[in-house]
Amino acid sequence: MVDLVFDAPAVKKKSPVHLADLTVAERKVRAEELGLPSFRANQLAVHFFTHHNDDVESFTDIPKELRTSLADAFLPKLLTLVKSVTCDGGKTRKDLWRLHDGVLVESVLMRYTDRTTICISSQAGCGMGCPFCATGQAGLTRNLTAGEITAQVMMAAKACDLGELPGGPTRLSNVVFMGMGEPMANYKAVMQSIRNITNPQPDGLGIGARSVTLSTVGLVTGIEKLIKEDLPVTLAISLHTPDDELRDTLVPVNSRWKVKEVLQAADRYEAKTGRRYSIEYALIRDINDQVWRADLLGRLLKNKNAHVNLIPLNPTPGSKWTASRHEDEAAFVEILEGYGVPVTVRDTRGREIDGACGQLAASQIDNNS
Ligand code: SF4
C-alpha cells in the first residue's frame, strides 16, 4: 500500500514573497508598507504581466534609487534555468529550473500550428505515488508558491514574445497543469496562480480561463472547492482505468475516492460551468488497454459531456510499464467512439527529451548524485 502525501513537508527555507504571491489589493498594501505610493505596485505589474519582464534595472519609469528595494520586495528571482532540451525541430522545449532552495522543477513549452502551450509544475515532486510516473517515484519535496508557478508561465510568455521557438514571435495561448505534482494538493497557491494567469493585464497575464487546464488524479474535495470558484478552467481527470480494482494500484488515491465518486464530482463541475471535462488515460501495454476496459469506460462516459485523451505511455527509465501496441490503441479508440465518446490520442511531444513528467529532473538529480 502506497502512503499518499496530501500535506507537503514543511519548507526548510521560505520562498521569497513575489508580486505573483499577492492579490491585487495586497500588492498595493505592500507598496504602502514600504512607504511607496500604491501605483508603484501597478507599474511593476505592467512590466511583469504585460511585458513579461522582471529585470527591474530596465524599468525606466521607476527611479533608479527605488529599483533595488522594489526588486527585493516584489520581484525576487524565483527561477534559475539549469538546462533546456529541445526536440521536434525546436518546437518542444523542456526547461529545468532551480528554485531558491536548490529544488528542481520542470516546464515544457510546445508550439503547435494553432496554439502554444506551456505545461507547468505545481509541486516539486508529488505525493500521489502513481507507480508508472517518474515524479511519483521520487515523492513530494514541497509545494510551489503561486509566484513559482506563475513565473513558469511568465517565462514561457517571454520566450514566445522573443520568438525563441521556431516560427517567430507568438503569443502564449494555453497553460496546462500537467507537469510535476498534483495541483489539487497545493490548492491555494494553484488558485492564486490561475488568477495571475487569467486576470486581464496588467493584474495578470490575460490568458482566458478556458485555455487553462487543471489536471487532477481525482481529489474530490479539491474538485468540490473548484466548483465554488468562479474560474471556468478546463478540468482534466487522470483516470487511467475505469475499474477500481486496477485503479487502486495505478492511481493510489483511488483508495480514498473511487472511480464513481470522481466522475460524479467531474459531472457536478460540468453542470456548474458548462465546460466539457477531459479524461486522461495513459495507455499501458497489457495493464489497462484491454477491450473490456475500453467497453467499461465507454459505458461510464456515454452521454456525458466528456472527452477522452489517450496518452501512449512514455516509459520511465528502468520501468516495467510500456506503451500499448498500436492495434490495441486503435481498438480502444474504436470502442469508445462506438459509445459516442469523443476521443483523441495525444501526440507524443517531447518523447526524446525525457518527456514524462519528472524525468528531466530525475535524470539531473541522478547526474548530480
Ligand atoms: S502521475 Fe501525476 S499525480 Fe501521479 S505521481 Fe505522477 S505527477 Fe503525481
Give an overview of the whole structure:
With 369 residues, the protein is an alpha/beta fold. The chain has a single domain, classed as TIM Barrel. It is 36% helix and 18% strand. It is built from twelve helices and twelve strands. The strands form two sheets. The protein has a ten-stranded mixed beta sheet, sandwiched between helices. It has a two-stranded antiparallel ribbon with strand order 5-6. α1 packs across α2. The radius of gyration is 21 Å and the shape is elongated. The two termini are 28 Å apart. The C terminus is likely disordered. It binds iron/sulfur cluster. The site of iron/sulfur cluster has 12 residues, from α4. Iron/sulfur cluster binds next to α4.
